[in-house]
Structure formats: C-alpha cells, structure tokens
Amino acid sequence: MNKEELIKKWLDNNLNPEEQKAFEALEDYNDLIKLSNYSKGFKAPEFNSDEALQTVLEVTNSKKQPKQNWLYKAMQVAAVLVIGLGTYFYSINRNTNYITSFAEKTEISLPDNSIVNLNAQSKLSFKKHKWNTKRNLKLEGEAFFKVEKGSTFNVITSSGTVTVLGTQFNVKQRNNYFEVICYEGSVQVAYKNKYTKLKPGQSFLVINNTITNTSTANKQPLWLDNTSEFKSIPFKEVIAEFERQFNVNINTENVDINQLFTGKFSHNNINIAIQSITQPLQLKYEQTNKTITLKRE
C-alpha cells in the first residue's frame, strides 16, 4: 500500500494492525499526530478526508522543492493542524449505529447503562460523545427501551418523538404505522405538535393518520419472547411483520389486506406461524422457497 492510501485510511480511522505499523513508519508520522492533543479546544470544522489527504500530500511533497526552512515548518504545522482537528471532530461527530436485518434481533447497552432491544429490520443511531448531556436517539423500525433515570431521553422517529426520564416503553415506526406502549413510569409522545402522556399499560397508535388509544396487560412486548401480537390491526401490517421475522416475501390473491386482524404468531416455527395468520381469516397458502402466496379459500 502506498503512502497516499495509508494516510487516507488513517484519516478514515480504518487502518488494520499491519497498516498501522506501516503508517507509523512514515517519515511524517510524528508531525501528523503531534497536535492531536491540541485539537479538543477548537470549534469543529467541516471535515473531508479527501481534502485533508490532499493537504498532507501538498506539504509532504513540498520537501522536494527548495524553500526557506521556516516556511516549510510553518506549512507542516498548518497541515498537522488541519489533519489533527479534522480527524478529532470527524471522529466525535460520527453517529454510533446499530442495524438489524430480516429475522434478526439484538440487545444494545447504551452509555448510561440503559438497555435497548432492537427488533428485526430496524436501525438505532446516536452521538456517543454527547450522551452525558443529551440522550437523543433516532429510531427506524421497532425497539423496546429500559431507560435509566437521568437527563431527558428522546427517541426520535419520522412520525413523532417520545420523551421520558426513566421508564420502560416500546416504539414501533413502520411506514404509515406509529405505536408507543408504556410499560413502566410514564412517557410523553409528540405527534404533529400535539402531546400525549402515557401511563403504564397505555398505548398511542397511529395508522394512516388515524389516532387510537388502547391498553395492554403485558409487562413487556411479546416480540422479546419471539411472538408478534396484533389487536384489530390491518392485515397488511401483519404480513409486513411476518416478512421481517422470517425473511420471506408474501403475495396475496383475492385477499383484503386492509381487513382487521387480531391474533399472534411465533417466530420459532414458520409453518405454525403461517397457520396462525391464515386460519383465523379462512385463507389458504402455498409456499415455494422464500415466497408465500395467500389465497381466499
């Protein structure tokens, strides 16, 4: 790997152990890292690793040209400042991301020891370096939160924002579906500039811009135990959740996907699960590899 590639990977914080040794052997290594300890007191500039690489190369290559020694040193220090500041602020301003795919769940421990369980095909992101002063997370998909008491804790979705101090709650945001269920403590839901407070057992549900307030006797969401449950939910939402949990495609023929469905299915056995969602609606099904077709009997 040449010098330019090493510096580029260093700027992206992406060196493997062997490349790190090669980078440390560069003639300019000490200059490149010398001011990293100075950078924390400066305001963050916009960082671009390609531009920073070009700056380094211009300075390091300038050794080949005769010049005043003091001018070279000044340019060298300026380049190190650019790289040091850029690398530091690029690093601290990056989001920490957790992503699950089809048929995958994961548990996440946040910096304050709050716990997040992320359901299938979901994404959670936050800025780790700001966590002590601003507990903000962005959620795409579904997650269950066990929040440690502390500063305000915000879960931001494309549909609305959930605000708490310390509690347990579930948030689900999928296309035109937005649901918040409080299991412990209390939560505040901001939706279209209106605020709703939920107590344990209460929920806030929006489907296609229609708001519904329901209740639950469960102590936590059933999907943590590999079960999806629905109460008067359009069948198309049931199909979408089934696809996420089993990584399959479901087609329908002469099936009203907007009819309401009440029931549940287990994530442990696809054959039992498909019967759980077809029998209550008197549907039959055919399966070919990862494609399932639902038909009216």
Automatic annotation (TrEMBL):
Keywords: Membrane, Transmembrane, Transmembrane helix. Residues 230-294 form the Protein FecR C-terminal domain. Residues 98-188 form the FecR protein domain. GO terms for molecular function: sigma factor antagonist activity. The chain crosses the membrane at residues 70-90. The keyword Transmembrane applies. Pfam families: FecR, FecR_C. This is FecR family protein.
